[in-house]
Write a structure and sequence with these properties.
This protein is of the alpha/beta class. It is 40% helix and 20% strand.
């Protein structure tokens, strides 16, 4: 299963070089489809008024304070170049990890998934949190390093070269071919 995580237009606009990331993720999606590897899209989203966000959650509270009146349908839109095919699934999560507050695990069991290929933004957010939880759940993991990005390049580098290899194979999209 290829997980395409948080590739929402509203999140991608925070990157200075989103075009390169989008191109790499688009390539990974194409390769997965060619190989008949299911693609699952994961987006972060909330109900109107964000009742899921606790005042104890420092990361999401900042979002809540600035976006409480925002259009949630717009927030969860996947970038147009990466949109799912009609038969592909989109999962809405309510926290950083793709597993937290979503039905991802139920879907993975239904597919009898044993291997997960991770892509996403941010490397230090959804990718790290999902990798850690998936490793604890005994999935075999691959991280496509050039299909992940972080607003802090050093965080991305350290995670993909020093931390992730302890629990996953780390490859570029071209190495994954």
């Amino acid at each position: 299963m290829l997980l395409v995580m948080d590739m929402q237009s509203s999140i991608l606009k925070r990157l200075t070089d989103a075009a390169n990331l989008i191109g790499n993720v688009k390539k990974a999606i194409g390769l997965a489809r060619e190989r008949k590897i299911p693609v699952i899209y994961v987006v972060v989203g909330f109900r109107p008024g964000t009742p899921e966000i606790s005042s104890n959650n420092k990361g999401f509270m900042t979002y809540k304070q600035t976006q409480v009146s925002g259009n949630m349908d717009e927030m969860i839109k996947i970038h147009p170049e990466l949109e799912p095919m009609p038969n592909e699934i989109t999962v809405i999560k309510r926290r950083v990890s793709a597993f937290s507050g979503s039905d991802l695990e139920v879907l993975l069991r239904a597919f009898s998934a044993k291997n997960l290929i991770l892509s996403g933004i941010a490397t230090g957010g959804v990718v790290l949190s999902t990798l850690r939880e998936a490793a604890d759940k005994d999935y075999a993991l691959t991280v496509l390093s050039d299909c992940c990005a972080d607003t802090d390049e050093e965080v991305h580098r350290v995670l993909t070269t020093k931390v992730f290899p302890r629990q996953a194979d780390v490859r570029t999209v071209n190495e994954w071919k």
